[in-house]
Amino acid sequence: MQTLFLEARTPHVGGDWEAIRQEVHALEFFTKGPLLRALLYEEKPCVLLIDEIDKVDQAFEALLLEVLGDWQLSIPKLGTVYAKKIPFVVLTSNEERRIGFPLRRRSFYIRFDYPSVDRERQILAVQMGSGGASVRGQTQVHSTH
């Protein structure tokens, strides 16, 4: 996209290369990932799910601190993008490594244990229809425990 933009603008440049450079490094040419999309979502607040935070590297954790602390994201050559609406952020962890203290201080921690066999049976029954039968009546929920 940047190359096409430059080819189209080259005949009309008029020597203002700094203006062209700023246009090429604008948000329109930037691939918006989940973090940036969550900050720029304008309708109403969205949910940002960051799954298995314990498996990310220190650089991403530092980036996330900026997002959770100031609701902004600094992008080299682009500048700082501020949240239009603050998303509801959910972090999950398998506790393979301990999350850093700065991130933990910005989070509300709730630990969920695995459900019991009876609770799993209840969940499946609700998902499949009454009594554990599927909508078509072909699948039954059985426990081996």
Report, as a whole number of angstroms, the end-to-end distance: 58 Å
The oligomeric state of the chains shown is: single chain
Give the beta-strand count: 4
Mean pLDDT: 76
Radius of gyration: 24 Å
Q: Please indicate the count of domains.
A: 2
Which percent band covers the strand fraction? 5-15%
How do the strands line up in the largest sheet?
A: 1-4
Per DSSP, the total helix count is: 6
Order of helices and strands: HHHEHEEEHH
Uncertain segments are 132-145
| Biggest sheet character | 2 strands, parallel
Task: Specify the helix fraction band.
Answer: 25-40%
| Shape by Cα distribution | elongated
Secondary structure class reads alpha+beta
List strands and helices in order, with pairings.
Blueprint: H1 2-9, H2 17-24, H3 34-40, E1 47-50, H4 58-70, E2 72-75, E3 79-82, E4 88-91, H5 101-105, H6 117-128
Parallel strand pairs: 1-4
Antiparallel strand pairs: 2-3
